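Tokens as discussed.
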């Protein structure tokens, strides 16, 4: 009886082994062509084929902290250098109806930026929302007080930090202070400032080209600041805008390349004269809340809303249906203009 049971168990084991062997042969035959080509295990090939392809990343991806550099925009400061390399260039009114830039750089691969200029309080707002290290040469009394009270990581030329700033004899003072990028990062290391960020970029950059449907034709964008008649002209062949003041194409001081941008955002914000340092005509800008604006790219414009809930909060740029807009992957000028400024498109 025991012998019969053992024989039966042996038969079961033999049958089971045969089934398993047959399954292995079937899998091997089904995948041997791929396995032979790649010299890999066939089952590993099957698993690898299920992986999602990696999506292309924005040119501004990465967690390195940005530099927000105040840049002069008057007198012999023009032409400036390295504006084309900025991720975002903010332009806003300062005293005397002049304008000033703050350029935000994501790991700039340039030697020099500038000429550098002094800070104003509302530019600090945009440095905060970009989680930037703030680079400036002095500032208004209020701006300097706020840099200190808010404990903003900053590099101030008035503190003469090493070789960060140098003056060129090809421009007249005070419009000739140039920022050395390599020395700036060295100085940042000595201050133990945080150099990485967990914050996402302010703009929702997308790699796949986006066109504005049913928008406003915008081959030319006219922004008539009172002392600076800025306009951007669309180059359809290159799909970028070239920046002009009046009829003069603006160019880089060092490379002589035309100043260009992929995107333009216009934000209408109320500005007024404060009594800070009475007699200087210092300006304030009301940029908290929901403001009207435009997003412009690829020869077309659309109306948007610019929502900022607090001084340090990231501005969210939305279409009129409340969706955050997708911004083409390229540099962007954000023009902060007086609320009654007559912007026109051609």
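Sequence:
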């Amino acid at each position: 009886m025991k012998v019969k049971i053992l024989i039966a168990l042996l038969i079961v084991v033999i049958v089971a082994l045969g089934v398993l062997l047959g399954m292995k042969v079937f899998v091997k035959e089904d995948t041997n062509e791929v396995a032979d080509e790649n010299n890999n295990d066939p089952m590993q090939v099957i698993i690898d084929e299920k992986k999602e392809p990696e999506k292309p990343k924005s040119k501004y991806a990465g967690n390195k902290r940005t530099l927000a550099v105040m840049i002069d925009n008057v007198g012999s400061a023009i032409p400036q250098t390295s504006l084309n390399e900025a991720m975002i260039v903010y332009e806003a009114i300062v005293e005397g109806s002049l304008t000033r830039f703050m350029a935000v750089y994501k790991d700039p691969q340039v030697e020099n930026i500038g000429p550098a200029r002094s800070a104003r309080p509302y530019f600090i707002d945009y440095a905060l929302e970009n989680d930037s290290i703030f680079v400036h040469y002095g500032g208004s009394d209020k701006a300097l007080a706020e840099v200190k009270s808010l404990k903003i990581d900053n590099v101030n030329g008035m503190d003469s930090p090493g070789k960060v700033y140098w003056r060129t004899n090809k421009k007249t003072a005070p419009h000739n202070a140039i920022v050395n990028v390599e020395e700036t990062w060295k100085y940042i290391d000595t201050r133990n400032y945080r150099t990485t960020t967990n914050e996402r970029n302010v703009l929702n950059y997308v790699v796949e080209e986006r066109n504005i449907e049913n928008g406003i034709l915008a081959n030319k964008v006219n922004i008539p600041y009172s002392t600076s008649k800025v306009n951007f002209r669309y180059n359809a062949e290159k799909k970028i805008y070239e920046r002009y003041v009046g009829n003069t194409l603006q160019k880089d001081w060092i490379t002589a390349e035309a100043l260009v941008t992929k995107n333009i955002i216009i934000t209408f914000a109320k500005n007024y004269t404060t009594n800070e340092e009475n007699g200087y005509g210092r300006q304030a800008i009301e940029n908290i809340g929901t403001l009207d604006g435009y997003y412009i790219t690829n020869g077309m414009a659309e109306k948007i809303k610019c929502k900022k809930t607090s001084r340090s909060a990231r501005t969210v740029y939305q279409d009129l249906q409340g969706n955050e807009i997708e911004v083409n992957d390229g540099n962007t000028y954000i023009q902060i203009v007086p609320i009654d400024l007559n912007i026109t498109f051609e």
